[in-house]
Amino acid sequence: MPREEIGNLAESLIQITSLKRKIDSNLESVGGNIDVALISKGDGFIWKKRNPYFDPKINPQFFDEKMNKNF
Q: Nearest Cα to 4, choosing from 59, 70, 69, 71?
């Protein structure tokens, strides 16, 4: 499975878990904004989706990828 799809799968599983717990009980233990990062031997730790409260200097590759996708 490609890395992008693995990240999307992880995010979807968290969203499904959050929805299930919201429906099944009054106790909400999962949810809110979801950040997604991938870790690999070759690339190391890379944010794929992160809320805008972080310093771009931490992961400039994130912004490089976004810029390349827009062109």
A: 69
Chain CA centroid to CA 63, Å: 15
Q: How far is CA 7 from the centre of its chain?
A: 6
Distance between CA atoms of residues 32 and 21, nearest Å: 13
Q: What predicted TM-score, i.e. pTM, was given to this entire model?
A: 0.57
Please tell me the distance from the alpha carbon of residue 26 to that of residue 3, in angstroms, as a whole number. 34
pLDDT (tens place) for every residue of the chain, 71 residues total: 888 898 889 889 988 888 888 788 776 666 667 888 888 888 889 888 877 666 777 777 766 665 555 44
**Closest to 48 measured CA to CA, from 17, 7, 18, 11:** 7
